[in-house]
Amino acid sequence: MKPVIFGLSGPALTDGEAAFFRDVEPAGFILFGRNVVDRPQLRALTDSLRALTGRDDLPILIDQEGGAVSRMKPPEWPAFPAGAAFARLWDVAPASAIEAARANAEAIGHTLAEVGITVDCLPLLDVRQPDTTTAVAERTYGAEPLQVAAIGRAVLDGLARAGVVGVVKHMPGHGRAVVDSHLELPVVEADAEALEQDIAPFRTLANAPMGMTAHVVYRAWDAERSGTLSPTVIGEVIRGRIGFDGLLMTDDIDMKALSGTAGEKAAAAIAAGCDLVLDCWARMDEMVEIAGRLGEIAPESRARLDRAMASVTRAEAAGIAPLIAKRDALLALA
């Protein structure tokens, strides 16, 4: 098994993709809007991935946060709110914000489980700052670490109730980034004392099954390399100060914050201490290069992967209408 999660080019596996994935055996797959049509199609796609790999516990990921970051959209699926909706409710009634976030996440989880998706790249534990890039700000759960951790824990719990694994992101914190890492490399100048606020929610939820890195340079920790490529950030901060021992994947290595070829970035991320590389865009030449640069998944990384996928049990199918009604009634308080 290669320590990489690959994207797919369309709504069904191509013959070329099937042959390549069968030969390479990536650790998992991630889906985007280009892979999503309707329930029967999406279930057929995820079933085909399991049949191809022979793995019932295959990680099939998606970014279904709500708001702008939603791959499964109306009218086929319900619209879900972005994280800031729960932050606003917290200002009025913190306990209600926690319950609303849990109900919302459970509803999301059931929509994913119904079509065979097992991992949601949620919750964000980034602590919002006054100048947080707009690419992140509306997706966050607030500006206070305790609040972010409490809502984040409820999201993890809601997803798990539906039989879906959550991914905490973006470790060790994207809230101080004032530019979009999809487009350029953010550099954070805050000192180590200030950065304690950023890592606090991740430390609180250090037992989360999966985490995702941030393509951000933190000058206080490593002035030369982004978190994704920094042995210092991964080893001393994420594994050390935060105490995270779950499966650690990169954010998408195609993002413009990182430079180099796809294979060079993938190899550097694994060398820095990431368990898995996330490569989203299904460009065959880049996937071939990545597969050629990466060895087999490390035993400790495979153990973390297996542990993460075993962290939730398959839930019974459930109607989501009561969960959405509960969420909406609570959000109305704000």
From TrEMBL:
Catalysed reactions listed for this entry: Hydrolysis of terminal non-reducing N-acetyl-D-hexosamine residues in N-acetyl-beta-D-hexosaminides
SUPFAM superfamilies hit by this protein: (Trans)glycosidases (SSF51445)
Limits of the Glycoside hydrolase family 3 N-terminal domain: 23-314
InterPro entries hit by this protein: GH, Glyco_hydro_3_AS, Glyco_hydro_3_N, Glyco_hydro_3_N_sf, NagZ_Beta-hexosaminidase
Keywords assigned: Glycosidase, Hydrolase
EC code: 3.2.1.52
Name of one Pfam family that matches: Glyco_hydro_3
Domain of life where this protein originates: Bacteria
GO molecular function terms attached to this record: hydrolase activity
Chain ranges passing through the membrane: none
Family: Belongs to the glycosyl hydrolase 3 family.
Name the record gives this protein: beta-N-acetylhexosaminidase
Lineage: Bacteria, Pseudomonadati, Pseudomonadota, Alphaproteobacteria, Sphingomonadales
